[in-house]
Design a protein that fits this description.
heterodimer, A: 296 residues, mainly alpha, 68% helix, globular, disordered N terminus, B: 428 residues, alpha/beta, Rossmann fold, Coagulation Factor XIII, Chain A, domain 1, 18 strands, 25% helix
Chain lengths: 296, 428
């Protein structure tokens, strides 16, 4: 038995604990929600173990294991190459269609998976929700990190395809971390919005699948942005860039394949709206959080 | 004067119960219209789950109302009350799982709760991995778990299987590991809700020991339980909650007798169940009509001699509804200790149908129970594939078992055991 409390009347505060040791005042929720950064920081180990659990559990009892991380975008690539590349003959900015679509599918698969997992996260973990207190933001934010592993594995295969198709990368590959950050922020923002909504309105779970599909065709995954601007003019470009995945996907292609010059305008506008999504999502989540235990 | 560890002022919690019943439509046009309007009405109903207009609506209940108390540092306080009295709601507010509607609570010190110990356990992960996951869920840091890991494993008694996935554990092993993690939180304030119901007798003793150790170390314990003897044993002071209000606070022995006096409205041989005060609120019309107790001669009575069979006659009004082999359960307790549950679920081999005004009669041969007061703690009716709850009443009535000279010696065993032994001695 660890005798951390030496004297019964003067409990020493425990240093290495996430639970607050001072006074906790519990009152009915009032006013605007607040994001408790210190508390989130205190629970970082929980965060780490939740992410680890996600990664460890995902491919247990599968034959192919981690290969799925590559297979999912790869199978989509084959399908899209056949449908959009061969049959519909969609333009691919002069790059072989498989490479063109795989470069987009790597970030897209991450985004879609995080969005759907985050949406479901509170409902699937409702047993934890009603029994223990810890910052609820951990739930939708866990997949944002755990799915990065899958993303990186899928990304590692991109150079393989680039060698096969003899497409050299551009020096802008060093900006990929920025694009990845925007991608993760967008996924986190949408994830928090949908997760908070899904607790009370289970419809969101059913709808998120379609939402993912709609968002995919709205993003330049199977077609290039140049297709849109050639039809509607350059004016719609920035407006379209408000959808953060546009800048991310076009940026991936520009940096890796050199299809177009680096689309800084799209990336800039996208980063801005991703930030808005991230913070509004966090505040909306905190606002709804007060009700989770009662309606879950 | 000692420091105050828990201070609760006018704490209240309001819930909306269930979703409102749908209006039934009997014309095709009406049905079509209501089907078209369904999304809108569903949306309103879902929204109402978390919105309150004035708090006096029919489907709003106060699970907790105007509860105030103080607990000094180092005190062990029990909370007793029947189902739905607000005990769990109180703990959920104190553990910050759900916010209160009114009032405030101040907790001074590190709080840990044992509401449901194995939260966050994942079946595919090993015991070791789950200790870390569960520990951080409960608020420990990885460093802290590193430090206590060996102790936790030793306490749990599953050391040999610590690197085996938890899904291969027996449920007892799982609970033991989970309790071991929770018991090593080193909290200053510990909130416990009936964990003692789990595990085998030996492990339960270990848990009780750990809890009194925690209490003895000058930490504050709030202990919610049905098990009145353990409340008396562990806590010096106890609160009684009834219908969300704090109705008694004082030494635990007095609290227990206050609770028993209040819960039992005198011994009764029968009771009208249509307007029973302890019916769990639900969306349905009450089904249970009455309950009568009959002795071996078929005479209605509230007192039975040791060993005498007891017949429960339960009348129900099912209206038009036809129930195919529903689960009817009558649970018996003595001072909060479950004695048995008479249930059609396991005791009836053949399917049966119930409809209209139906009567269920169950004859119980209780064996030689010690004399004293017994309560019918619960009568429930469940039906359908998902065993939907159709009616449920707690603390239905009390009856007594009276002494009989079973051995022909004029003496029987003491009253604080459960059974009067039915046995003989031989000498050679």
């Amino acid at each position: 038995m660890q005798k951390t409390l030496v004297h019964p009347t003067s409990p020493k505060p425990l240093k290495d604990t996430a639970v607050p040791t001072g006074k906790v005042v519990i009152t009915p929720p009032q006013g605007l929600p607040r994001i408790d950064w210190r508390e989130l920081l205190a629970y970082r180990d929980l965060f780490y173990f939740m992410v680890r659990r996600d990664v460890q559990v995902l491919y247990r009892q599968t034959v192919l294991g981690l290969a799925w991380a590559f297979l999912r975008p790869f199978i989509s690539m084959i399908l899209f190459t056949f449908i959009f590349g061969r049959v519909a003959r969609v333009s691919s900015d002069g790059i072989p269609y498989p490479l063109f679509s795989y470069a987009a599918l790597v970030p897209w698969t991450y985004f879609a998976t995080v969005m759907q997992t985050a949406t479901m996260s509170l409902v699937t973990n409702s047993s934890m929700l009603t029994k223990v207190y810890f910052p609820r933001l951990v739930f939708p934010l866990t997949p944002v990190f755990s799915k990065l592993i899958d993303f990186l594995i899928a990304l590692l295969f991109l150079p393989v395809f680039m060698v096969i198709y003899r497409v050299p990368p551009t020096p802008y590959v060093f900006f990929l971390p920025v694009l990845i950050a925007i991608m993760a922020a967008t996924a986190a923002g949408i994830g928090m919005w949908l997760a908070a909504l899904a607790v009370q309105y289970r419809d969101v779970n059913h709808a998120s699948q379609f939402l993912a599909q709609i968002l995919m065709f709205a993003a330049p995954v199977v077609w290039p942005v140049s297709l849109l601007t050639s039809r509607f003019g350059e004016d719609v470009r920035l407006l379209y860039g408000l959808y953060p995945m546009v800048g991310v996907i076009e940026g991936f292609r520009a940096a890796l394949l050199g299809t177009v010059p680096m689309p800084w305008d799209l990336i800039g506008v996208g980063a801005l709206s991703a930030t808005v999504l991230l913070f509004s999502g966090a505040y909306y989540f905190r606002h709804m959080e007060r009700r989770f235990a009662d309606v879950a | 004067m000692s420091r105050i560890a828990i201070e609760v002022e006018n704490l209240g919690k309001r819930y909306r119960i269930g979703l409102l019943q749908e209006e039934e439509q009997d014309t095709l046009g009406g049905a079509l219209l209501s089907w078209l309007k369904a999304p809108l009405t569903n949306f309103r109903r879902l929204q109402r789950l978390s919105k309150f207009d004035n708090g006096d609506e029919a489907d709003v209940i106060w699970a907790l109302r105007d509860v105030s108390f103080q607990v000094e540092e180092g005190e062990a306080v029990g909370i007793i009350g029947r189902n739905g009295a607000g005990k769990s709601t109180l703990l959920k507010i104190l553990t910050r799982i759900t916010p209160p509607t009114t009032g405030r609570a101040v907790l001074d010190g590190r709080v840990a709760s044992l509401l449901e110990v194995d939260t966050g356990f994942h079946p595919d992960l090993t015991g070791r991995e789950n200790v870390y996951l569960n520990g951080t869920v409960l608020g420990m840091t990885a460093k802290e778990i590193d430090r206590k890991f060996d102790e936790i494993v030793e306490f749990s008694g599953v050391a040999r299987f610590i690197d085996t996935p938890v899904k291969r554990y027996s449920s007892g092993m799982r609970v033991r590991l989970a309790f071991a993690v929770a018991a090593h939180l080193d909290p200053e304030i510990l909130l416990i809700d009936e964990v003692l119901a789990v595990g085998d007798a030996q492990f339960q003793r270990k848990c009780l020991g750990k809890m009194s150790e925690i209490a003895g170390e000058g930490r504050t314990v709030l202990f919610v339980s049905h098990n009145l003897p353990s409340v008396e044993a562990l806590c010096a002071r106890a609160f009684v909650l009834d219908e969300g209000r704090l109705v008694f606070s004082g030494p635990s022995r007095e609290a227990v007798s206050f609770y028993l006096d209040r819960q039992v409205f005198g011994l009764a041989s029968g009771v009208d169940l249509r307007h029973h005060p302890h019916r769990l609120p639900g969306d349905r019309e009450p089904i249970f009509e009455s309950l009568r107790l009959l002795n071996g001669d078929g005479v209605e009575t509230s007192s039975f001699a040791i060993g005498e069979p007891i017949t429960f006659e339960l009348k129900m009004n099912l209206g038009e509804e036809v129930l195919d082999t529903p689960f009817i359960t009558i649970a018996i307790e003595k001072r909060g200790i479950p004695i048995c549950a008479l249930t059609t679920r396991f005791m009836v081999a053949r399917p049966f149908l119930l409809t209209g005004l139906a009567t269920a009669r169950c004859t119980w041969r209780p064996g030689w129970l010690t004399p004293g007061e017994y309560t019918i703690s619960r009568v429930t009716l469940k039906a359908g594939a998902s065993a939907e709850r159709l009616d449920h009443i707690d603390e239905v009535l009390a009856f007594e078992i009276v002494e009989r000279d079973v051995y022909g010696t004029g003496k029987i065993a003491r009253r604080d055991t459960i059974l009067v032994p039915d046995g003989t001695w031989h000498f050679f």
